[in-house]
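in:
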């Protein structure tokens, strides 16, 4: 009598619409799973086409090519004698579903459509798919001819069913269903399902991993069972980084943990577990057994196959492990670095260019690129031939072996300090010293000639010469002169990105990196089309507070001592004239609020769904020790005025790594108008009445 089963799950770095690459990675994961003795293999959500296809799901080509990939999988000897569970879109009776296709030995066992679709935050699944609403109901699905010719089947079961093998019972969940209040695993477990599977397309958010792990472990803590979770990993073509964390849990405890961040395109996690442990765990939970005796049963698809072997008494099983979570600083160091590497290699560019100002934000961005170089060298050292091949192609050297992060940084990373007459020698020195310590190819240049030329054109046309406030000019004049400097830097960044390597006799172009943090974007404290306008921004979803902690982490872990003076200096744009050679302009004074306050406003606005009045009501309690109600009212009004005046800037925000749940990203995550009535007259009157009452 078999009792131990060996199962495999995986994290795959799939890429939207890369059917050839996706197929190759699926095959590799199946081969690894089989080589480790697994009899069941689970893959990520929509792994055949890639999760992030977006409106390409509407196209019949996406469905056609997905079935062509499925055909290759079905007919391959690699998929024999192992139950394969793959994800793809399927059109059933002219309705598009997000499905799992489960097959064994050239026969499709079940097509299981997703029941609960993810439709909040970054997810828009209801735009492309319809949830399966017929609980515990199965219909006939007529297979396309190309699949019929391989399987010999005309129809297969389609719907909400479970698989009954010779030795156990398996039930599938898909991503969001784990997070739903009425998760299918609850009723499945009561109906005798012992192995639950979950194929996910779950992206990284700072401090989120523990929530996913806790949900998986709690799924089997009350009901017993084995829970297997697969997830996509990497950048599959947009702002999200899918962070792996494939895992296997039994009876409320983790028995196998995959990595959250790595450059491995294919990671397979295998565990051997004892079915009798599930049965004995359930036996003493009387409340569970009473509920199970009343449950409405699932349709069962019988499978003439066993996950266990008849004589397996001597087979060792996995024991519970303690999950190790990364600190937020480690997450910032690893997640955006892996995302940058995927973007660089898949865009087929030769490296990055960063305007390095000597401030915290651009320095943090530089440190993330340096961390990327660390990850590349480590992956090559550990034998990752894919990373080695990509690195050689990027640097255009077929014999190159990346061993030293600083040396790799020199090849793929150009930093540029763009000085003006308003720049201090301190920031110039800080940028130069940091560039030396990380190894980047560093350029120093002055933008004064270009700025004077642009202002000169205005003077010729209008006969007027704008002046800074310190020289008697109006605030309008001063702001315009600051914006000219900022926009000149963007133009020069793109010029050098296109031609810097050409000037050095090297092929290729560079991707321009932006470095505006999430708080500045929320407040709109940036010039539209300045050097925050770039190709991508690895820190655009990270708060100033977290970036400061990350800088401290880099000082301690990368020994980048240049960061100490950067940490201690007050943040400044350096766009206004110096006073006695020293910086007189600071970010927080310009904004009229601190970065710490901005982070609080951002979380209340987005996560707590607070408008001006609700935010005021919450803050009079949160800040009662430091502010009077009238002061709170003034701060809230100032924030909402500035936020609404500058919201239009979010429509052109550089695509940023999504790391924070209060991101103001206008593309998909934070949908708001960009033309506001910035007086907020009704809302502010409500606040004023409450202030007077208090």
């Amino acid at each position: 009598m078999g009792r131990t089963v060996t199962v495999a799950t995986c994290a795959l770095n799939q890429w939207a619409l890369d059917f050839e690459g996706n197929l190759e990675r699926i095959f590799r994961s199946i081969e690894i799973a089989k080589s480790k003795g697994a009899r069941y293999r689970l893959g990520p959500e929509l792994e055949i086409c890639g999760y992030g296809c977006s409106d390409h799901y509407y196209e019949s080509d996406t469905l056609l090519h997905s079935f062509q990939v499925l055909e290759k999988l079905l007919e391959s000897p690699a998929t024999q004698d192992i139950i394969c569970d793959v994800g793809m879109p399927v059109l059933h009776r002219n309705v598009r579903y997000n499905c799992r296709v489960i097959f064994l030995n050239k026969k499709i066992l079940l097509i299981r459509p997703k029941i609960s679709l993810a439709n909040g935050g970054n997810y828009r699944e209801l735009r492309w798919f319809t949830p399966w609403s017929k609980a515990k109901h199965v219909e006939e699905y007529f297979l396309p001819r190309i699949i019929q010719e391989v399987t010999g089947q005309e129809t297969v079961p389609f719907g909400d069913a479970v698989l009954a093998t010779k030795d156990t019972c398996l039930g599938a969940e898909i991503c969001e269903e784990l997070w739903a209040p009425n998760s299918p695993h609850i009723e499945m477990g009561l109906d005798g399902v012992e192995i639950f599977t979950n194929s996910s397309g779950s992206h990284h958010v700072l401090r989120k991993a523990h929530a996913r792990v806790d949900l998986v472990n709690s799924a089997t803590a009350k009901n017993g069972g084995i829970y297997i979770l697969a997830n996509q990993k990497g950048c599959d073509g947009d702002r999200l980084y899918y962070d792996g964390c494939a895992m296997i849990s039994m009876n409320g405890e983790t028995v196998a943990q995959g990595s959250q961040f790595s450059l491995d395109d294919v990671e397979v996690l295998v565990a051997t577990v004892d079915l009798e442990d599930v049965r004995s765990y359930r036996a003493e939970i009387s409340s569970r057994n009473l509920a199970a005796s009343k449950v409405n049963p699932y349709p069962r698809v019988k499978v003439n196959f066993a996950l266990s072997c008849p004589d397996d008494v001597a087979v060792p099983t996995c024991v519970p492990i303690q999950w190790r979570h990364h600190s937020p600083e480690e997450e910032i160091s690893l997640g955006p670095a892996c995302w940058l590497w995927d973007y660089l290699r898949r865009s087929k560019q030769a490296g990055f260019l960063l305007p390095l100002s000597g401030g915290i934000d651009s320095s943090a961005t530089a440190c993330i690129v340096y961390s990327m170089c660390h990850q590349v060298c480590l992956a090559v050292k550990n034998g990752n031939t894919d990373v080695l091949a990509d690195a050689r192609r990027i640097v255009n050297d077929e014999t190159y072996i990346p061993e030293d992060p600083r040396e790799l940084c020199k090849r793929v990373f150009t930093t540029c300090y763009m000085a003006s007459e308003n720049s201090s020698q301190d920031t110039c020195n800080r940028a130069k010293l940091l560039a030396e310590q990380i190894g980047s190819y560093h350029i120093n240049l002055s933008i004064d000639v270009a700025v004077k030329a642009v202002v000169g054109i205005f003077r010729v046309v209008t006969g007027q010469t704008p002046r800074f406030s310190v020289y008697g000019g109006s605030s309008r004049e001063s702001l315009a002169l600051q914006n000219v400097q900022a926009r000149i830097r963007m133009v020069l960044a793109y010029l050098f990105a296109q031609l810097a390597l050409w000037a050095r006799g090297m092929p290729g172009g560079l991707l321009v990196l932006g470095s505006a943090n999430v708080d500045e974007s929320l407040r709109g404290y940036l010039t539209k089309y300045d050097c925050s306008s770039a190709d991508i921004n690895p820190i655009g979803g990270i708060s100033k507070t977290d970036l400061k902690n990350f800088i401290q982490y880099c000082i301690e872990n990368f020994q980048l001592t240049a960061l100490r003076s950067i940490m201690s200096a007050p943040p400044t744009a350096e766009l206004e004239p110096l006073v006695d050679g020293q910086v007189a302009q600071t970010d927080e004074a310009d904004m009229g609020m601190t970065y710490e306050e901005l982070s609080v406003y951002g979380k209340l606005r987005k996560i707590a769904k607070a408008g001006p009045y609700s935010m005021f009501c919450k803050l009079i309690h949160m800040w009662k020790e430091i502010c009077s109600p009238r002061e709170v009212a003034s701060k809230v009004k100032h924030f909402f005025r500035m936020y609404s005046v500058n919201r239009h800037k979010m429509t052109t925000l550089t695509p940023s790594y999504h790391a924070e749940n209060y991101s103001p990203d206008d593309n998909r995550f934070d949908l708001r108008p960009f033309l506001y009535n910035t007086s907020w007259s009704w809302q502010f009157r409500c606040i004023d009445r409450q202030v007077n009452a208090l």
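note: The chain has a mean pLDDT of 95.
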